[in-house]
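Technical note accompanying the year-one report. For the benefit of new consortium partners, we illustrate the data format agreed upon in the data management plan: each record pairs a sequence with a structure-token string. No post-processing was applied to the example shown here.
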Amino acid sequence: MNYVPDASGILSLAGFSFQIKVFCCYASKLEEHKQIEFESLDDIATKKSAKVQNFDNTINGQIKTPSYQSIQVKHTTLTDSLAENVLMNWLQIENSSYDIQKYILVTDKKYGNTDLIKSIDLDSFIKEVRNSNKRKNANITKVKEIFANKSDQECKDLINAVLGKYEFQEIDIKLELEDCFKNIFLKSANQVLFEQRLEEFLSRITVEILKSVNLTHPYILSYEEFQKIQNDIIPRFTVNESLPSYSNFKRVHDVDLKDSAIAQSREYKQLVHCKLPDNIIKKHLIHEQYYRKARNNYIDIGLETKCEDVEETAFDNFEFAKNALQNKNIDTPRNRLDNTIQAENSYADTTQIREGVCIFLTAESTNDKKKISWKDE
């Protein structure tokens, strides 16, 4: 019987954030010839590549199958029925052609779970499966089909094969992430930079997983790709700069113009005066959010002066633009916006920061001495 992974999990976002963080923890342990998969064989699976072993050059060749770790992630209180369901998933995998080296159940420490899988009464479990009349695609029905041509002892042997490779893990995900990435992102060298790099990594992986989820495809991260991401992140977060990826930021941060907090904000109201379509207003507000994120990062690493320089330059650009537009008698909110955000700001590291800081300075909380108005109040 061929095992077909259940795709329902990829369509569900329950415990999604916790599952991604667990995925990242296991990703940190990747080695050459290994990869980690999100919603493929299981919630998470690690795969070690197969190698060809040649015993002679003629007929005696052997190909080893890839070996896996099959990992279930539960961000909830475990129950007996949930434990049985996890075991049923693994029995289907064990009965397939996959070579599983270890089965792991990961739970969040805050739920205080105990290991219920090892306490399952095998005789009662086998009887329950055999007597089930659930729908055809139910987990228990799939296991019932596996048990159909087996004696009770053979069923127990299959279950014990799983339990013999099974491990229960109860983790504090924050501490686990810090421990897994402390050497990768150099925690001891600079705690703040470590946290910014780790946050950026989590953001990057979340974006990649969301892309795959939208396509209902598993997400696969190889050892080589993991190192490329690591090499991309570290140079962007140093004592001299802190630059989150704009593309990643944009994908995980959305602006809902119907949100009352946004609709009542001065930034939004000032943009409305510019008579912009909603999609352009959203882009400007995303740029503002991105600048706020970069600004907080700069402040965290002690670069407050850089923020002040970016903001003072943006305000100067606004004053120059306003004056020039008034002299030409074309001073409108839209012209003020366009001329201000397009002006050079050498202290801004990216276009999004250069534009975002201008929207940021229209906020109600901005000091009146450098507050920007596209339309005077």
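Partners are asked to follow this layout when depositing records. The chain is about 50% helix and 10% strand.
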